[in-house]
Design brief:
six-stranded mixed β-sheet; globular; 33 helices; 51% helix; 13% strand; Transferase(Phosphotransferase), domain 1; Rossmann fold; single chain
Length: 753
């Protein structure tokens, strides 16, 4: 081929050769640029299945536009020669790089983040690579990763973003369940068994690549394919510390989770794996600046993103609700979360946030598994059963490394004793771990939110409904909070919750002074109770936000989050305040922290979604939407009556082109809350995504009539962009000076600081 001119490409040199054909460097005579041409071997051109695989590679890769995926310029045929035109890369394959020995940890993480980012993009479009290995990963001379060879790619036609011109391997009959596809040493267990694959298949292969990069050897070895298959299916790889002791323990945890044989226990998406790698990279960078060695980072098996200053780390799993009554779940959740909060008061104990253990709720899982996946030294498990005014709580502290219980206790008490039980559990755990509590810690553990358990029960019920934002739900929450403070006038957190709900009622539903007055009264009563709770700062921040004082709202809520990053709704408010102030990038910057501490408050996702849209980050928004859907769908399984989460999910479905699914959720949300302001507003957003501005304007007008009259959020909401210029839209939500004034105040405060 050298020296030949094929079509308008002049062949210059041979770059490589593989099973499907040969790759050459060529000059595009028409455009005067150098490209790579991948030719299908002539002996294979007559094999329809191989020709279709060759064409599928080009079509799958061309459906992707990502800096870490090799760009495909086209697929052509000339004089019976079939070839793919690709960008010409300068550098070396990852397999060549590994042949020189293990890759340094900084490069492992840098390359790993780029690979994960590329996989996240491909998976969001329904494309599974299925043959990820070092030979198909190229490292340019500038250190940029490029994933190659989508010849075995599988296309999921259920993904709305899937390009219709990319054939599905199974649909085309090219591969079928029962046929192992891919390179043996990098196969997932499901590939080795010939089962149907999905995005998690690539994550297992990626874990194999990470292991090989870090150690220079394969995690699953054998002299024959059969031996390798057996290792993949039945054996665990050697721990990294036995192969390369200089590696951080946290990397071992990340790789082990990627290499889980049960794909339900593996990382569920590339975004989570990418986040884990990025956090480890951040911690290593900060460790180098402080003089620590890389192997000392996370040596206590702490989670990614944690600062290694604690002697122990503990994950508190949601207790099992043995009563079987769904209405008792709010109590189970509240008690579990309160025990987590109590333990977080102990300085020498690293306590994982509620969001990090949420995935294990109501699932059968061992402490060892949780310890491996989260990096926890210890796991607290338990159960509760309520019968009338009696409460039975069983708690057990387990060493995650050995699955051996260090302490266990059964409490059979009156409901009024629940706070004493929580205090005792925390103290007993400290004693079991030989942690000496300071007088200040003992005092903090002894502090109770209220002396009245019935008031506390009402508070938990109210919080459960307040998260749903709807008018009827928030009215019910307000009633619960007011009943709570009637029983205990000194219940500071409940007073703060009243202020919080009243501020939101003013913002969402009724711009009346009476709501502001109620916020001020409730806040003062909370302060007068003699407690300086972060919930009070949160309530004050909501009032500032509702009245357009964004800079003050941001300062107050950040102050509250510094004291308690798990404060309910805290990151949701911070995101909204930054969004309305036009600080879209700052919203995106707090995304991972916000999601890590969101718990069950799914509202946290909303300003992030809108900020990505307002910044025009289409690829990132597309990827984020799938993460958001998983949060919404999980919430619906727990509370199918939640109209708010249904309509949010409908909006995402509409953006993804899943119009039938979107309509189903809209109809259900309307049946549950037909006149709710926020339901109507989000229906308008959904209809805009379905390119139905006429009906969207009808819904938005109803939302306005029902009380939602905020022009700032509405005009900045990217979902409603197609309504801009509509006379009715401009009349109801004018582009007032309020937005400009709000931004000016925010900028001036930053300049002053």
């Amino acid at each position: 081929m050298l020296g030949r001119t094929v079509s308008h490409y002049q062949i210059k040199s041979q770059l490589g050769e593989g099973g499907m054909g040969v790759v050459y460097e060529a000059e595009d005579i028409n455009l005067g640029r150098h490209v790579a041409l991948k030719f299908l071997s002539p002996s294979m051109a007559n094999d329809d299945s191989l020709l279709q695989r060759f064409q599928r590679e080009a079509r799958a890769a061309s459906a992707l536009n990502h800096p870490n995926i090799c760009t495909i310029h086209g697929i052509e045929e000339h004089d019976e020669d079939h070839f793919i035109v690709m960008e010409l890369l300068d550098g070396e394959s990852l397999s060549d790089r590994i042949r020189k020995g293990p890759v340094d940890i900084e490069s492992v993480l840098t390359f790993g983040v780029q690979i994960a980012d590329a996989l996240e993009s491909a998976h969001s479009k329904g494309i599974v690579h299925r043959d990820l290995k070092p030979a198909n990963i190229f490292i340019t001379s500038r250190g940029q990763v490029k994933i190659l060879d989508f010849g075995l790619a599988k296309m999921d036609r259920n993904k709305p973003d899937a390009a219709s011109n990319v054939p599905t391997a199974i649909a085309e009959g090219l591969t079928t369940p029962g046929t192992a596809m891919g390179t043996v040493a990098y196969m997932s267990p499901e590939q080795a068994r010939g089962e149907i694959t999905d995005a998690r298949t690539d994550l297992f292969s990626f874990g194999t690549v990470l292991y090989q990069m870090a150690t220079g050897v394969m995690p699953f070895q054998g002299d024959t394919s059969a031996v390798v298959f057996d290792a993949i299916l039945n054996r665990d790889p050697k721990p990294l510390e036995q192969v390369n002791p200089s590696l951080p323990v946290e990397l071992d945890r990340i790789i082990n989770q990627a290499l889980e044989k049960d794909r339900d226990l593996r990382y569920q998406n590339a975004a989570d794996l990418k986040t884990a790698l990025k956090r480890l990279k951040r911690d290593l960078d900060s460790g180098r600046h402080s003089g620590e060695s890389s192997s000392s980072i996370h040596t206590s098996r702490m989670p990614s993103g944690a600062t290694p200053v604690h002697e122990h780390s503990i994950a508190v799993l949601y207790f099992e609700n043995l009563s079987g009554m769904k209405e008792d779940e709010y109590l189970r959740d509240g008690i579990t979360e309160d025990i987590t909060t109590e333990l977080s008061k102990i300085a020498k104990l690293k306590t994982f946030s509620r969001a990090m253990v949420l995935a294990y709720r109501d699932k059968v899982v061992t402490a060892g598994k949780v310890g491996t996946e989260l990096g926890a030294s210890y796991v607290l498990t338990g159960s509760l059963r309520r019968a009338g005014n009696r409460l039975r709580i069983n708690a057990q502290l387990i060493d995650a490394a050995t699955d051996f219980p260090l302490w266990s206790e059964r409490y059979d008490r009156e409901m009024e004793d629940v706070f004493a039980v929580q205090d005792e559990i925390a103290s007993k755990i400290a004693a079991a771990l030989r942690i000496t509590l300071s007088p200040q810690e003992q005092q903090a553990l002894a502090a109770k939110p209220t002396e009245n358990l019935h008031a506390y029960d009402l508070y938990l019920r109210g919080r459960n409904f307040a998260r749903r934002v709807g008018r009827q739900d928030m009215q019910f929450a307000l009633q619960m909070y007011e009943n709570a403070v009637t029983l205990d006038p000194d219940f500071a957190v409940a007073h703060a919750a009243i202020a919080n709900v009243c501020a939101q009622f003013y913002y969402y539903f009724e711009r009346k002074q009476e709501w502001i007055d109620r916020v001020n009264v409730a806040t003062q009563r909370a302060i007068a109770a003699g407690r300086d709770e972060p919930e009070i700062r949160c309530a004050e921040a909501w009032l500032d936000f509702a009245q357009g004082r964004y800079e003050s709202a941001v300062d107050k809520i950040r102050s509250a989050l510094n004291r308690d990053p798990d404060i309910d709704g805290g990151y949701h408010l911070l995101g909204r305040a930054l969004f309305e102030a036009g600080r879209y990038q700052e919203v995106v910057d707090i995304m991972e922290d916000a999601l890590a501490h969101a718990g069950e408050n799914y509202n946290t996702t909303i300003p992030i979604h809108n900020a990505l849209g307002a910044l025009g980050k289409k690829e990132a928004l597309n990827n984020y939407t799938y993460r958001e859907n998983a949060i919404f769908e999980a919430q619906l399984k727990k509370t199918p009556e939640d109209a708010r989460v249904r309509v949010l999910l409908a909006g995402n479905y509409a953006e993804q082109g899943r119009f039938d699914d979107a309509k189903r959720e809209v109809d259900l949300a309307m049946a549950l809350r037909p006149d709710d302001t926020m339901i109507l507003y989000n229906i308008a957003c959904t209809l805009c995504s379905m390119n139905n501005p006429k009906d969207a304007m009808v819904a938005l007008k109803k939302a306005w009539e029902a009380g939602y009259r905020n022009p700032i959020w509405t005009r900045q909401d990217p979902d409603l962009t197609i309504l801009h210029g509509d006379p009715e839209f401009d009349r109801l939500y004018p582009d007032s000076n309020q937005q400009a004034v709000g931004r000016a105040l925010f900028h001036s405060s930053e300049d002053a600081s």
